[in-house]
């Protein structure tokens, strides 16, 4: 395995803070999984889709290591014939790379933090009004959007874009008592097995039109909550799931429970499509090392079919999911 640099470790602490919310913070390190390779029949001969990945904003690809922490996700896309490129320009109408692409990926988008005075911070979305408008037009005119958001404290940067598409967002930790954190890891977040048997994997969604690409079980580690329409749900949270949003290290949590929460949704918008996922690690290739235990995050988890879910996801967005 590749040995992570200190920079990589600090970045992971920022984006996997759910594992750290405890009275005694465990030591967290991470390694890149380099061994898992998902085998599938490629559509490279017929796939003409171009994917643009946002690297202008502070996404998980902004650091120097770019796609390394999601290396299998990128390998799957390229193996299946997708032309994948990064953009380091704003996502407004001046971005010619976006205008010539078929799919836009925004993977993790924390708010900007603006310090106003001592102990006072203003949280502001990094998305401009022009970018939100342009992305909306891009999808309505036939493009597709794959948007990963995250949990407290770094999940709300995409809120203006979610609201533009009619998606309601709860920036916290989704928890259900029947689904504790992985191996009792000290966390407010539930770790879920999502499958057809427990009805958390909605195989009736058109993303699964090709039954050969229907996952049996999806591993879902710690996400926020979204909801829109019932038919949009791909990965559902159990009924009576509670969203916890810590106010601060000592304050009382804000709690809200619902039967309508989802961890992943997908829907048409105009001539295009949108998928929103609240677990930004669901397709990453990481092994988190916490208190001497290894937590596969998550595409390579031995008990999950997350790679199958990703292929179904990206093919649906590229109008390829009914191809054999």
How would you characterize the overall build of this protein?
The protein has 324 residues and is α+β, with helices and mostly antiparallel strands. It has a single domain, classed as Rossmann fold, CATH 3.40.50. The protein contains 6 helices and 19 strands. The chain has helices spanning 6-15, 71-79, 96-99, 129-140, 159-164, 306-317; strands spanning 28-32, 50-54, 83-87, 103-107, 112-117, 120-124, 144-148, 168-170, 173-175, 191-194, 218-221, 225-227, 233-236, 241-245, 254-258, 262-269, 272-277, 285-290, 293-298. The strands form 6 sheets. Strands 3-2-4-7-17-16-13 form a 7-stranded mixed β-sheet, with helices on both faces. Strands 1-18-19 form a 3-stranded antiparallel β-sheet. Strands 9-14-15 form a 3-stranded antiparallel β-sheet, with no helix packed on it. Helix 2 crosses helix 6. Mean pLDDT is 87; it is low at 1-27.
Question: What brief labels describe this structure?
Answer:
Rossmann fold; seven-stranded mixed beta sheet; alpha+beta; three-stranded antiparallel beta sheet; 324 residues
